[in-house]
Amino acid sequence: MADKKIVIKEGTSEIVEKRSRFIGRLIPVSSEEEIDLIIKETKKKYFDARHNCFAYVLGNTKRASDDGEPQGTAGKPILEVIEKNELADSLIIVTRYFGGTLLGTGGLVRAYTQAAVDALNNAVTGVRKSGMAFKLDIPYTMLGKVENYAKKGTVYLLEREFTEGVSIRVLTNEADFDTVNEDFITLFDGAIEFKDVEECFYVAADDTVRIL
Description:
Alpha-Beta Plaits
């Protein structure tokens, strides 16, 4: 799992092949119930479409559906996109509006593959990492220094709560935790405390971070 890619931000796509319209969507998922709900919602949204084909990987479980297309022409190529790109806990669903012209087996495989690949290319993914999250309670006068420190890329500043001071949820890579701790002690002349420290997994890419 450690080397698998996680979807941070879902991606969508749309292609037209011989007047057939293919609408793709790559979504991070966490349960079979969530997957079933997404598929039902997609079929409801595109109620007039001919097919809603999909594939997903969830933990060690994988499944593909051709949803009425010739066997092996839709679900399987979508699943291959997921597996070849080492995506974890991911669902790709491709909706097809039939354009009146048969595409043939090869044409269908190419179209469903391209819709899935384009959805992936429009998504944001990252490799799962081990992290440490903690809370800092600081005065307003120190906020700028903390923000400048974050620009080095060692920490991510998450939720902020403004009251008499500033409460910030901070995330760092587990391997950097000791260094970050020492840096903040220096930055605050020792007058700082890491609160609610917890281990976690996270993914980060393109200035987007997601705790798993």
